[in-house]
Write a structure and sequence with these properties.
Number of strands: 11
CATH architecture of the largest domain: 2-Layer Sandwich
Order of helices and strands: HEEHHEEEEHHHEEEEE
Largest sheet: 6 strands, antiparallel
Number of domains: 2
Structural class: alpha+beta
Shape: globular
CATH class of the largest domain: Alpha Beta
Distance between the termini: 29 Å
């Protein structure tokens, strides 16, 4: 992500940046991201033209691309699911995460960086993640598939390009429909933690703006950002 920020002003088009080693890896809200050698760490940096709210929906595009890349690695879609807002699950454990960062002026996004981390070979110990969070798993440990970062990027990049074309051509509607078809715990009770508040309800859907929709005892809630616990 740091390298993407440095290169972004001089780029004329989208570019993938693959890191073999990281010393300052981070996830959402500045959380540490453990990145041992052999795991996947890459950023796609691009110049989007849409308003910021639309640009942010590319987390769903990235999720679908990751799903397709995992199916390409294993030949089996069954163990994978997408966890709102930006994780991929494998046999119920977290195998990948997505982080969006952007720069801009005057209410417009100048550059968007989509950071993606995948536990290809190893996952961090359970005690290194937040309490009640989904346990981390690795692709190798759960499926036996041994994939190099380069091989994974060769699957991920064209998958992203395909979903990006659908997004820019048809908007969020087909992306939303495809994401919901792969969603984890849809229709089940989840907890959405927003800062100091926790909301418990049935995961009803994701709305046209990408918000999580919960059916709670207090009524229907549309939540734009939260940590989700099962």
């Amino acid at each position: 992500m740091a390298q993407a920020a440095r290169l972004a002003p001089d780029l004329t088009g989208p570019a993938w940046i693959l890191a073999h080693h990281q010393t300052g890896a981070h996830g959402r809200r500045g959380r540490a991201w453990v990145a041992p050698a052999g795991n996947f760490a890459a950023t796609l940096v691009m110049r989007p033209s849409e308003p910021p709210a639309q640009v942010a929906l590319r987390s769903f595009v990235a999720s679908l691309a990751l799903f397709d890349a995992f199916v390409g690695c294993t030949g089996n879609p069954a163990p994978f699911a997408l966890k709102w807002p930006n994780d991929v699950l494998l046999n119920g454990g977290k195998v990948a995460g997505i982080l969006l960062e952007s720069t801009g002026v005057g209410g417009q996004v100048a550059h968007l960086s989509i950071g993606i981390g995948v536990n290809l070979l190893a996952a961090p110990p359970r005690d290194q993640v937040e309490e009640r969070a989904v346990a981390p798993v690795s692709l190798l440990g759960e499926t036996g598939a041994r994939v190099s970062p380069e091989e994974f990027l060769d699957l991920l990049a064209p998958a992203f390009a395909q979903w990006e074309a659908a997004f820019t051509t048809y908007g969020f509607a087909p992306i939303r429909q495809a994401w919901l078809a792969r969603a984890a715990r849809l229709g089940e009770t989840v907890t959405a933690r927003t800062g100091t508040d926790a909301h418990v309800g049935r995961f009803e859907t994701v709305d046209e703006d990408g918000n999580l929709v919960l059916s709670t005892p207090k009524g229907r809630m549309n939540i734009p950002a939260a940590d989700i616990f099962f």
